[in-house]
């Protein structure tokens, strides 16, 4: 991971619309929350893909368990 991304993640979001008490506009707070969530989900997906590449036997077993759960699921 490049150092620039690490520095961005370490710094908290501080939009210009914050007032003296640290409150944000609800719209901007929701936007910032969605941005952080999207970043988290991207990193989670990347970590899972890396784990699957590094441990193919475990990944195959997990796929088989998931397939079995889907076959035995009742609507």
In terms of structural class, how would the helical and strand content be classed?
A: mainly alpha
Determine the number of helices (DSSP H or I, runs of at least 4 residues): 3
Separation of the first and last Cα atoms: 43 Å
Main β sheet profile = none
Please count the beta strands (DSSP E, at least 2 residues each). Answer: 0
The helix content is over 70%
Mean pLDDT: 80
The ordered H/E elements are HHH
> Based on the structure, what is the oligomeric state of the protein chains?
single chain
- Low-confidence sequence ranges: none
Q: How big is the Rg?
A: 20 Å
The rough form would be described as elongated
Beta-strand share of residues: under 5%
How would you characterize this protein structure?
With 75 residues, the chain is mainly α. The protein has a domain at 27-72. It has helices at 3-10, 26-54, 56-72. Helix 2 packs across helix 3. The radius of gyration is 20 Å and the shape is elongated. The mean pLDDT is 80.
Helix-strand blueprint:
Elements: H1 3-10, H2 26-54, H3 56-72
Biased composition (Basic and acidic residues): 1-13, 20-32
Region (Disordered): 1-35
In short:
Residues 1-35 are annotated as: Disordered. The chain has 75 residues and is mainly α.
């Amino acid at each position: 991971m490049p150092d620039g991304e690490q520095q961005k993640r370490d710094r908290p979001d501080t939009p210009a619309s914050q007032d003296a008490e640290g409150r944000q506009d609800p719209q901007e707070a929701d936007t910032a929350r969605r941005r952080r969530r999207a970043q988290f989900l991207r990193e989670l997906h990347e970590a899972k893909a890396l784990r699957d590449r590094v441990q193919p036997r475990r990944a195959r077993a997990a796929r088989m368990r998931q397939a079995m759960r889907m076959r035995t699921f009742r609507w």
